[in-house]
Design brief:
The complex is a heterodimer of chains A (250) and B (174). Chain A is α+β, with helices and mostly antiparallel strands. Chain A is built from 8 helices and 7 strands. In chain A, β2 and β3 form a beta hairpin. About 4% of the residues of chain B have low confidence. Classes of the chains: A alpha+beta (250), B mainly alpha (174).
Chain lengths: 250, 174
């Protein structure tokens, strides 16, 4: 691989969008070329700078009220004016595109109740005041907090060095069970990692990924514990998060 | 489906993505009040066609509508900025990436990053917002922006080249 090739693909590489063969070539080139290593480091710095929470504009509370009001109003039949016809045509084009892009079932969705509960618990946790019962970046504070609240000791790992900061823990309720929820933050994004004891004889299952309602999810079973990670970080990063957790849990 | 239940389903599917909608609109319009108007308009459009949404990726579906509403707004209010297709004569082909000038994150403060990002053409800005802030995959960005995946890849690379060059130049001036 030449330096020109490396420059061409460096962003796709850092974005986790290259296939495995090309990734390996990039890594190999990176090890042998100081100039390209500097470029990759600069790009990494840029990514970190962009992911600052301060650059993310959260919706003001009043906008939610406006949107809810508009949604209720919009449910009523309205007079169609010529400008509305234009808007409707534009929106119909969007709809046609959307139907083309996301036909029903094209998403590898998990339809079972657990997946739905995980999504609901994740969304609920993002509402003000619902994120953590024990806000702490200390694994040694979060882990003991669960003693007596769930019937197992949830593994709490410190991934701050890898860009996933522990935010805290929470007791939650998923698929009819009390479960441990561990919250991590990456830039502006929150990740919920749910854990509960796997059924006896469930064995180990390798991680599998899916999306549902626009959230990425990864689940796996290891050491008698079932894990579900969910977030709006992209799928590659959530898989990276899952791999890190698995590598740290004995 | 009754009025009440359909608006409830709508709110349940789309309201969790209100921050994502607002953030994209805020970066494309570069103004908070305008972003609110555009998001409201986008939700009205989304509602009108929600019956045609059969599940799947609600966030990407909503962001597609928000993005189109933003461009409609730009066409009406800032026609000079509203080209979602880049003029390749002006903006490309890509210059070689800056290599030697090391960019360290400690040198970069929020205000400068924000200014540099706002100065990018909207077609560059939107791919960066969707990628860095919303974590969308290239495939999802291609769907939202209505371009090919290869275009997403080259726009992201050129957007980051431009940002890196700008921020490195800023750092050199101090």
């Amino acid at each position: 691989m030449t330096c020109a090739d490396f420059r061409r693909f460096v962003d796709a590489h850092l974005d986790g969008e290259l296939d495995l063969a090309r990734q390996a070539e990039m890594e190999e080139h990176l090890r042998s070329c100081p100039a390209c290593s500097r470029l990759a480091a600069a790009r990494q710095s840029l990514r970190t700078a962009l992911r600052s929470e301060e650059l993310y504009f959260r919706s003001p509370a009043r906008l939610e009220q406006r949107v809810r009001a508009a949604a209720r109003q919009g449910d009523r039949p309205r007079l169609v004016t010529s400008s509305r016809i234009g808007a409707a045509l534009a929106a119909a084009a969007v709809l046609a595109a959307a139907m083309f892009l996301w036909p029903p079932g094209s998403d590898r969705s998990w339809s079972d109740r657990t997946a739905q509960d995980v999504v609901s618990a994740h969304v609920r946790s993002l509402m003000p005041g619902h994120l953590t019962d024990v806000p702490s970046s200390e694994q040694h504070t979060v882990r003991p907090w669960f003693a007596g609240k769930v019937e197992f000791a949830p593994p709490v790992v410190d991934l701050a060095g890898d860009g996933f900061a522990l935010v805290g823990g929470r007791l939650d309720y998923v698929a009819g069970k009390r479960v441990a929820a561990l919250v991590y933050r990456q830039g502006a994004h929150l990740i919920n990692l749910f854990a509960w004891p796997a059924p006896p004889r469930a064995g180990e299952t390798a991680e599998s990924a899916s999306t549902r309602d626009g959230y990425n999810m990864v689940r796996w079973t290891r050491g008698g514990i079932e894990f579900w990670a969910i977030s709006d970080v992209n799928a590659a990063e959530l898989r990276q998060f899952a791999a890190l957790v698995q590598s740290r849990v004995p | 489906m009754g009025t009440r239940s359909s608006s409830e389903a709508f709110e349940r599917a789309l309201l969790p993505h209100l921050d994502a909608a607002y953030n994209l609109a805020r970066w494309l319009t570069r103004n908070g009040d305008d972003a609110e108007d555009v998001v409201q308009e986008a939700f009205v459009r989304a509602l009108r066609f929600f019956g045609g949404f059969h599940g799947g990726n609600a966030r990407a579906w909503l962001l597609t509508i928000v993005r189109n509403a933003c461009y409609d707004w730009l066409r009406r209010n800032r026609p000079a900025e509203a080209h979602d297709e880049l003029d390749e004569e002006v903006h490309g082909p890509s210059e070689p990436s800056p290599t030697a000038e090391d960019l360290l994150v400690e040198q970069v403060d929020r205000v400068r990053v924000q200014r540099a990002l706002e100065e990018l053409p909207p077609a560059f800005r939107e791919v960066l917002i969707l990628r860095e802030f919303e974590g969308l995959s290239y495939k999802e960005i291609a769907e939202v922006a209505g371009v090919k995946m290869g275009t997403v890849m080259s726009r992201l690379a050129r957007a980051r080249d431009a940002l890196q060059r700008q921020l490195t130049a800023d750092a050199g001036k101090r």
